[in-house]
Structures are given as structure tokens and as C-alpha cells.
Amino acid sequence: MLLPTPVILIINQARQAAEFSSVLEKTGSKVHAVTSFEEANELLSFLHPDIIILPNQLEGVSTGDGRLYCQQIRATLAPPRPVLVLLHPSTDVTERINAFRYGADDVLGDPIDKNELAIRVLAHLRRRQEEFSNPLTQLPGPNLIRRMLEQCLYSDKTWSVMSIDLNKIRVYNETYGDLAGDQLIKALAAILLDVADETEFVGHLEADDFIMVTRPEIAERKAELICQQFDSVSSRFYPKGDIARGYLISTGRGGIRRRVPLISIAVGIVSNTVRKFQSYIDVLTNARDHRNVAKQKQGSFWVSDNNLEEELQETSVNNGQHSLPTVIDRTSRILVVEPDGAMACLLQETLALEGYCVQVTSSADDALELARFEPPDLILLESNLIDRKMDGWNLCRALKADMVLSKIWIVMATSHPDQLLALEAGADLYLPKPFDIPNLLSEVSLLLRSRV
Length: 452
What we know:
By secondary structure, this protein is of the alpha/beta class. It has helices at about 15-25, 35-45, 65-75, 95-100, 115-130, 140-155, 170-175, 180-195, 215-235, 240-245, 280-295, 310-320, 340-355, 365-375, 390-400, 420-425, 435-450; strands at about 5-10, 30-35, 50-55, 55-60, 65, 85-90, 105-110, 160-165, 200-205, 210-215, 245-250, 255-260, 265-270, 300-305, 335, 355-360, 380, 410-415, 430. The strands form four sheets. Strands 11-12-19-18-17-15-16 form a seven-stranded mixed β-sheet, sandwiched between helices. It has a five-stranded parallel β-sheet with strand order 2-1-3-6-7, with helices on both faces. Strands 9-10-8-13-14 form a five-stranded mixed β-sheet, sandwiched between helices. The chain starts with 6 loop residues before the first strand and ends with a helix.
């Protein structure tokens, strides 16, 4: 797997700096050499070295105290700051300890064999890589990811960045525990490493948020392979009962239950062949935006610069409540199906005060007719209806079986103690009676906002 190129800054006399540079470049590092602390400060305004190598006393054209410069670096540079390696001519232990107190991270003899210096530098670079790796997956963490993306931005090569994460990981953790969720994250990391070759970079930003840097001509093929491999192993992380049911049950405040799809992944792909990026944050933000479009799809899915517009158009159509043209900024419509007259009146007035357009009925047949005539955005449905031909359970099944009406959110409000009946009938939310009105309004708002 590819890693960002280490950057080393040498501050020393020209001859000494040239000798050190020649051997340190053989470690695979990018080496910059300057002969004064002033020149070093100019470089540090835009350069982010991993290691700074400097003498205890800089002599020649420019002079300066290396210990004081170490102190300055610690005081002025924000983390992650470079490792400070001070070359000290004295063998006196007290003087060397004093150099550490000024801020040096390592104190080496001066003069020092250049090969010995290279060995010590490699040791610091390895330790730095371990320090900047994600503790769960041991993949490069945020600091190394930033370095990698910045090097991409300054490169004249073409590249693509994939932003990858798990859908519904929070619900998975709530259901099976954080340790199980960690195993799932580690499985995704293993898949990414398996898919990546020696020219590609894989990083782990946080939680379930990963990135991969690859070549534009293979990015979409890699994304498809990642989705396929994840889907092939994800079933191993569920009990057989949940696999058979096909969804998880998320529990909220007040006993509210909702169906949550089995875990999948979303991938967003951006490339410098399509647009120019201003910073590494710009790259990450755009890749995440593409990934969020992929999250609107069912199952594991990827979206790239090449198909973004097409996916946005399709998502807009699929998120509508029916196939007829809709006005996006219209008032949301809610159909209340409630046999209790007092409760129906309370719900109608409460929802109307929130700005919703509300219709009320107590009959399943009437509700089905109203939904077909002008599909609402959400149906608040009581399971125990007075209609002899169809109760709330069957009405819910009929709505979800209709291709046009199946996208309507259904909140099943019922006093029945078995929440599985409501969810298995197709309800998106199980709301036990009696319920708290503020909780109802919060859940209704959340559902409606998710399809704006």
C-alpha cells in the first residue's frame, strides 16, 4: 500500500546539509535543506515536515542557538508538529538533558555518521506513522490522510479519491454492541486493503469513515468491487433471524420502533480529471457529498463525478411520493387514520398548528381511496379500525404493496404490545399508545425531512 512521502527539513551549513540530504533521500523521503533559521521559518509557513534536523549551534554565514529554535517550534507550531532532532557536540549528560528540556525530541552526537543518522530518522518515521495510525485498524489516520491529499494536490498526476463508510452503523452498534461494530469496521478495512494495490493509499479518518486514493481509470471498478466484497461477507455479522427478517429494529424514546435496513456501504468518488480542488478539505467535502447521494440508494452503492447528475435526478424521482410531478416546496400532507373521534381531532389540530395539511378518516377503505386520489407524504395509522373489511394491519400491507403508494411514510400508532406486527406489516415506525405528542411531532418531522 502506498504511503505519503515523508518530508525532512535540514538546517545546517551547506556542505553538511548536502551530505545529510544525499543519504536521507535514499530512505524515500523528500528532503529540504536550508542554511539559516530565517530560511527555515519561511519554509515552515507552507511546508509541514515530519522531522527537522538542526545543530545545537548554527555557525558560518548565519548563527543561532538550536535549542532556542526547538523551543520556538514547540511554542508556535500547532500539532502535529515535526520531530526535532538536535545534533549536539558535547558528550556531557547534563548538557544533553538540558537540550531535551528546551524541546528537542532526540539529541544525537555531532559529528555523526550520516548512515547512523539515516537509521535514526527511519526509526522516528516509523514511530510517527504508528502514532498517526488509527488504533482500531492500524491504517493511516487523519494526519497522514491530510499529508497524502496535499501531496496529490501538488502533484501533476491524475488521481481519484473515494470516500467510504457504513450505512446505519449506529443502529448496528445499538443492537449488537460496540465491539461487534468494531469487528464490522475492521472487516471493511481488510476489504479495502485487499482491493488496494501497492500504488494506492487507504486511510481511516474516524469511526467508519475511510478514504482510498487511486487512479481515475480504475476508480469506479474498484468501488464496485468493494461493494461486492462487502455484501458477500456482511451477512456473517448478523444472527440468522435478522438475516431472514431482512432488517434491524431501532428503538427510540417512548418505545418507538423503526425498521432499519441491514448494513451496507456508500462510496463517493471525485477526481482531479473532472474538477480542480482548492484544498484537501475541498476534496474530502466533495467526496462525502457524492457519498451522501449514494446513501439514498438501497444496499451498497457508489456515486462518482461521472454519474452524479444522473443519480441526483433518479433520487429526486424516487424520493417523490408518486410518479406525477410534484412541487418540492409544497406543504407536507398527512393523512390521519384514527377511529377515536377525540384523538383524531387532537391530532388534526396539533399537526395543523405545525404547518401540515391534514386529512382525517376512520375507515381503511376511505384512507386507501384518499391515498390513491392524492398521495400524502405520511400516514398516521391506528391498527384497530372500525372498518370490517380491512383493519390497520391490512391497510398498511395494501399501501406498501402498491408501487405508487409504497413510498409513503407509515407511522403505525397502536396499543398492541408486539411491535413486530407493525413493522412486518410494512410500517416505517411503530408508535405505542398512549404516546407523547412532542415525540410524535419530532418523529414525523424527521421522516418528512429525510425525503426533502
